[in-house]
Each structure stands twice: as structure tokens, then as C-alpha cells.
Amino acid sequence: MPSPIFRAEPLTESLRDGKPQFPRTTVRFPSNVPYIVDNLWEFLRPKDMPSRRQVIYASPTRELAQANCSGIDKGLGLCVYEVLIDGRSRMAQLKVADARDHPDVKAIKKLVQDKIPRVVTATPVARQCAAMLFLPGGTAADWESVRQSCPPVTEFIAEAVALSTFWASSTSQHNGTNGELFVELSPGASFAAKDLHIY
User: What is the pTM of this model?
Assistant: First the structure.
């Protein structure tokens, strides 16, 4: 039997009433990691791993879910619950309790400080290419385009790729550790709250 996973978020009437919850249809922008790091992770994402932009986030315990909740009370309080998935999905788990604590975040921030000032002063074109790295929701195709067309950015991307350990240190299933989980639901799949507690 799979290990349970837990989620904390603002309470809604739909959750409270036990109705099925469906994945969002829009891209999720990160609230806890810089856009450039989120874009790098999407650029490097293996095809069999879930996209962090289309997932529900969860934790292996109620306590971690509650501690990592970034939602804002919308008037009904916050809640924590066990996630029950109905349908097909794919999952990944990190080795850290929250993505903001992943070593990539600090490493890429340092790389930006060290390298981007030289990139943006190289030429106006290089400056525009570098801006693409920081766009919210930048795609793998966006990064590949500037990687191929702008040598100063090509060098930066190569160094960022070499530094990144995000996907290499992630597993494709719940491994029983305290790492953050993210689950991408297949079309038509849903999830529901079990043993919901309001806090």
C-alpha cells in the first residue's frame, strides 16, 4: 500500500464538503524559488518526471505539510488533510522538506551574481537574451532558443546545468523520507481530502 501524503492549504467549501478537486489548468508560478531557478528546473526536467508548474504539492507528514503551507486564509481558515488520488498520476520527491531549501537555489543565485553582470553588459542583444532566463514561466524551448543564439548566455546556461542537482537528487516515487512531494494528475484524475483538520 502506498505511503500516505498530506497537503495544507486555505480551506474552501468544496474541500470541506469532500468534493473532488481537480488540477489547475493554468501554469503555476513559483512563490518560494526565483524564476530563473524554476526555469532551469523546467529546462532540465526529464520527460518522465512531473512538471512543477502543473502539480499539487504535498508532504509525507501532516506536520511538514502544515509547516510548509504558503497559502493565505480566505476566510474559512487553513486546513491540512491526507490526499486521496482518484485516477492516474506521476509523482516526484525531493530530499529536502521544501524546494526553497534545495542547494540549487543558493548555487544559481551565486552564479547569477558572478556571471550575469558580464552577460548583460556584453551587447544589447545579450542583455535581451539574458532577460529570457528570468521570465516567469520560461519554457524549455525559450531557454533552448537563447542557448543556441546567444554565446554569452550559452556559457551561463552550461554552467547552470553543470551546477544543478535537482532532478538527479529527486526520486519518481514516495521514498519514505521527509522530502517535499509533487504530484501531476493525468487528465480526468482528481483528488480529495481525507481526515481534514482546520487550524
Answer: 0.90
